[in-house]
Fold this protein.
Amino acid sequence: MNNSAIRSIKWIAVTGLLVAAGACFSGCRSPQSGTQPSSASQSVLATIKQTGRLKACYIKYPPFVIQDPRSDKLSGYFIDLMAAIAKEGSFTVDYEETNWGTMITALQTGKCDVIVSGVFPTILRAKEVTFATPLLYVGLSGVTRKNDTRFKSAADLTQNGLMIAVTSGEVGDEYAKRFLPDAKVTVMQTEDISRPMLEVLTGRADIALGDSLTACRFAKAHPEAKDVFADSPLRVYGTTFMVRRGDPEWTDFLNIAIGEMELSGVTDKLEAQYKECPSAWHSKGKAWK
């Protein structure tokens, strides 16, 4: 074989190696590279194991979430429950405030990894996010003025000319959109679910829709108001932690943690501490009649 042929063979071999190397630069991975999840796909539970910290969002929602106006310290049923879980799991919870209208976006953008305010799993919300197993059950009620006798059932909400007030993004808002499409509804952008109930007392609304927890507390604090569906709520919702979709390990961890908190008596102690009236909520197995 002459020198020219040898040089041609060497050139072909080198060229082949370079082409193969270029292909790997653009598309190949080392055998170990697929074993570590990226930060975008890594489970929240894996992050907790690595950092010892959890990013959580809250919405002020007494007595599930209470914020001291002087110290900003958080307490309440769900805050104390998450603190008990974090203590058992040896991690720290870092809280950031959100609201009912932006809580789903806060999860989806990674601002937080769990909503700890006690959120209702609904069909509309389940299209975007998912939930841990329900801890307790809260109803959808309504608040009117004490002397108003027009409201005894859901059918009474379809009366002509009614002014209904709700909080944007809250279940009262969802109910009105679905079942009261022809009603005159004032949708309020507020973190305070009781704010629409003040519209009733000032005469700017006939009835305000809100959860049974807020309705009973509002009626208790305002003798001129009435919780009209206390004994027979318009709907009943489970209440629990809300999380992103696509992270079954994190959801599974929360479900197991909730089960342990129930069996160990933690949730019973929290209910005894924070439940203010019988119609506020019901624990599992103690549904409305």
Q: What stands out?
A: The chain has two domains: 44-137+236-281, 139-227.
